[in-house]
Amino acid sequence: MAIRFTTFQFYKxxxxxxxxxxxxxxxxxxxxxxxxxxxxxxxxxxxxxxIRLQAQRHSMADPLDIPKYRNAAHCAYTIIRExxxxxxxxxxxxxxxxxxxxxxxxxxxYHFLKGYLQxxxxxxxxxxxxxxxxxxISGAMGPLVNNPIxxxxxxxxxxxxxxxxxxxxxxxxxxxxxxxxxxxxxxxKGVTPxxxxxxxxxxxxxxxxxxxxKWLDTNSDTFKLTAAAK
Length: 230
Description:
It is a single chain. The chain is mainly α. It contains eight helices and no strands. It is globular, with a radius of gyration of 21 Å. Solcar repeats lie at residues 22-116, 126-215. Its main location: mitochondrion. It is a multi-pass membrane protein. Belongs to the mitochondrial carrier (TC 2.A.29) family.
């Protein structure tokens, strides 16, 4: 989230012409680029580790049934040792596409609804509950749009790639297998749990972000004076 909001604002600040006018659809483009940035910096390797840990099966009742991965750090170490560092970035293209489409839907929706409520109520700062509600709505947009991408990405990251297929070949292999064996409905498996996970998280995130951002802006002069005094 820190990377997402920081890079979103960074890219948005760049999208201004020489007259100081923001680009059209700047929230969409900044969100898209922020999604790609977070996917490359942290989401892809952590997704690979998370999925491997969740996918392994062992019996808690059998002391001899020892899981392959003991924890996240051990999982990352084992993947690098057995499959190479590049294995942590398996599915980076699809993860980037998923995160980019997530934020390209998330930020424009939030800022559109925020602007609408500000104009409707003639206020600058929305109450916290309103920020949470529109954050929840905007957070649901991503999973509804890109669940097929997430399904293919998860299948690619879940299993090793012994044939050493390239990214596009691997994508076609997994995509074709899903269509052949499970049908197109399989691309929307798990969409409800994703919405139930992501939407409330975005509600909390945006509500807290707006409150903390307002507090920092209000106290910025105090921070500057304190820093100057030191």
